[in-house]
Amino acid sequence: ELLEGYLGFMGIYFALIVAVYVALSVQSLRSEEQGVRAEPVLATAVSRSSWLGSWTGVTAAGALWLLLLAGLGQGVGAALGTGDWGLFGPVVLGNAVHVAAAWLFLGLAVALYGLAPRLLGLVWIVFVYGTVLSLFGEMLEFDQAVLDTSPFQHVGQHPAEEIAWGAVGILTAVGALLVGVGAAGFRRRDLITA
Fold first, then answer.
1. What is the pLDDT of residues 142-180, one digit of tens each?
2. Among candidates 112, 105, 121, which has minimal Cα distance to 63?
3. Model confidence at 108: pLDDT above 90
């Protein structure tokens, strides 16, 4: 149980790292716009929707890829260390499903960028809040209702716990909805231009 608990917790830990990647990727969009490098691209046949959508799609795929790689590395390490190759599949899956929380952060960051790019830094406040609750919330004996406000708490620490597939679906859907909101806002707002 101790080993499975550790492996399950590492899924959350890797999801936190991938959430940083996601936030930095969306901040790169803002840097492209502030550096007036987005304007020449959007002056061509590239639409705002396709520019933002391709950036978001690559970031979403990258988040899944990073969590799969983390799961593969951790799964191989656990299997070799214990001699139990039955851990490999659950560990890979336990890491991969946490992509839903990362996608929620992606949606939040894209929504902030699309609607009010100056507020994009708020994603870091949400990240720090979720990280503190996920890493230290139980030690600090917060109520479960408070712990549940962290997006990293809902998926489950597989293989120690069952995966909450409903939570995976909801986090993914909310992330996708936020991306849609951000894309709609980005189409309507003015760009930073030279």
1. 999 999 999 999 998 888 889 999 999 999 999 999 999
2. 105
3. yes
Nearest-5° angle of CA 85, CA 63, CA 75?
10
Nearest alpha carbon to residue 32 among 117, 154, 104: 117
Q: pTM of this prediction? A: 0.91
Could you tell me the two tokens for 103?
């996608």
Joined tokens for residue 7: 């492996």
Using alpha carbons only, give the angle 49, 113, 61 rounded to the nearest 5 degrees.
65
**Residue 145 is encoded by which pair of tokens?**
């209702």
What the block records as the tokens of 105 is 């952060």
* 147-176 burial: b if 16+ Cβ within 10 Å, else e: beebbbbbbbbbbbeebbeebbeebbebbb
pLDDT tens across 18-33, in order?
999 999 999 999 998 8
Rounded CA-CA distance 116/13 in Å is 29
Closest CA to 99 of 31, 39, 162, 14: 14
Residue 121 structure tokens: 């830094």
Asked if 152 contacts 102 with a C-beta cutoff of 8 angstroms, the reply is no
The C-alpha atoms of residue 45 and residue 56 are separated, in whole angstroms, by 19
Query: DSSP alpha helices (H): ranges in the chain?
Result: 2-34, 38-42, 48-82, 88-96, 99-115, 122-136, 144-147, 165-188
Q: Supply 161's token pair.
A: 């716990």
